[in-house]
Every structure is written in C-alpha cells, then in structure tokens.
Amino acid sequence: MLDPLLRQPPNAPALPIYFLANQVYQFSYAKPIYERTGGIFIVPKLKKLLLFKTKLRNTNAFPGVKTFLNTPKLLYRDIKSLGDFNGIIISQSATRIIRDRAKSITIFMGHGTGDRKYGDNAKVLESYDYHFISGPKHEAKLKDAGLSIPEERLIRIGNPRFDAYINGEIDREACLDHLGVIDRSRPTILFAPTWQSGHVNLFRFVFRFGRELSKHYNLIIRPHHFEMKYLPLVRGWAMAKGLKHVYYSNPNDLVHQDTFTIFACSDIMISDVSSILYEFLVTRKPIILTTHTYDDLHNMPEEMNVASVSELYDGSPGTDIAQMVADNLARSDNLERYEGLLENCFYFNDGRNTDRAVDFLTRLDHR
User: Fold this and answer.
1) Structural contact between residues 159 and 276, judged by C-beta atoms closer than 8 angstroms
2) Average per-residue pLDDT for the chain
3) Which of 77, 170, 244, 291 could form a disulfide with 264 if both were Cys (CB 3.0 to 4.6 A apart)?
C-alpha cells in the first residue's frame, strides 16, 4: 500500500519510469505496470494530452502525486527526442527513440500481438535494450519480420493486461450498467473491427450486423481508435432505423471501457485481423472472423492462427450471421478450442504477468 507521504510505492524500481505512446489507447498496455510502479506518461501532441486528461480522470494510483484532474503524471514531449531522460523508458509504439544510452534504458512493450505487420518501422525495434515478450506468437512475429534480437534482451513476462480478467477483478455488471444494456437475458456480441488506411473498414459489415444481430442479441460496436470519428454516423443511423439493443464502446476510455472490461461483458466476438482477436482468447469464448482485404500480414504457424479454430463470415447472400452466432455459442468444444490456442500464443496466463514485469524493472538499478 502506498505511504501517503511518498510520491511512489515503497517497492518501486530505483530508476524513474516513463511510459510513451503515439496514441492514448496504447497506454492501456502500460496501465497495469503503472499501477504497481508509478511513473510518468509521455504524449507527443497537445490534443492527445487533453484526451489523456479526459479519459484518465481520477485514475491517479498514487495520492502522494498531485495532478490536474487527478490523472497519472503526464509530460508533453517529442517522444522521439529524450536525450535528457534518466531512467527506464517503456514504449508502446514502434518508435525510434533518440536518447542518451548512458542515462536511459529502453524497453519495447508494443500494443498488441495480432497478425498485422509492424510496418516500415520494424527495424527500429532492434535499437531497444529489452523487449517485454507476451508469448510465442510475439516472438514468431519478430522472427517473421526478420529482426535479430539477442536472447538476453527478450524478457518473457506474458500479457499484463490479462491479469485483471484472470484474477476476477472486473465487474461485468458495472460495465453493462455503464454501456446502458437493458436486456441482460440476451447474449452479448462484441463487434470490434480493426482499421485500414484508404477506406473505412468499420462500414463493411456494421450496418448489416446492426440490422440482423440486434433482433436477437445485444450488440456492442467498438471501432478501432482511428475510426472512432465515424461512430456518431453509425449511432445516428441506428437511431434513425429505430434499432434497440445496440451499444457503443470507445477504445480511448481506459477506465470504464477498457478492452478487457468489454470482454467481460461479451459472450462472443466478431472481428477480422485485429490483435484484439488474440487477446480475447483469454476469455475462452467463441470468435467469428470476417473476411478482409489485408495482404500485408505476418506468416504465422497454424497453431498460432485464430483462423484455424474460428468460423469465417464472408457476407455472401444468404449467409445468416445471427444463426452463425447461435451455432458458435451452442458449441460444446469452445473451451478446448480456444484454450489450446491461448497457450500457443501467450506465456503463463496465471494472473501474475504484471508481477514478472515489475520484478524485472526493480532489478534495473543500473546498466
């Protein structure tokens, strides 16, 4: 427990900790560690600072640290230029950090382990001192990207975001209350598509799913951060059509609508190639995949591919998505199907992933 006279927990790492990301939602991956170690969050733009303040209001985990709106401590800086920083820098983004190696230690944590490639910046990952590794799939992605990272720099901790779900710390009813879900006798579907540059991926199926699934189920629509701007249009369309039992989730709301909080509300998920597919495995609940037009994906072993155990929806005429959902919910082998894939993709899954990360950080007293 925090001593109210201290500005950090008594067992915090000796070196200051900084968390950085290009987007606010990416900080959700660092949040479990922050709640144990303290630290400062770095954002690169003023509008993101304001979003951070709005979405993380009253989530300061350390009363000894006084901040505006009681958020975690925040710093507005160019995240690529941190030459004057002395401490541990944990990054959620594949960003090359300009820093003084004699003063700082960098750790790449990332923000998901899906099948999409890291992009043009993959080689910058070799510049980090350490990598927090969530599982075999994470390592397979690094290998497929052609990266050469020495074994001693790979720190296998598992996924800290799993801990709250595994340890039963998420209040499903409170989440449903926040979303405004009325009929809780209905199964709840999470529709969480990723984004695609050049066109709106959300629009491929959202209108059809809204019409067909809301007749029998609660439907939670959770766009990717980059497509949140289209959610008012979807909401307006649903209202104009008089649709009920359709709800909306904001990935930037790291308090009330964190990804794993929404998982606790959901009985089944529909997505495409988002990393959220693999994180949902921790629930051992069924997954339906939609077809997509991505061609720049990692080449993953079959035992690490969610498509190997999930049904595919292509939207062709006569395809009944509501019946597909019903069939998947009724399957008796869901636990077996998804448990195996979870173990193939993520290490540990014992509710102690954050412990492993914090234990490593506390050993970084000096280089």
Assistant:
1) no
2) 91
3) 170
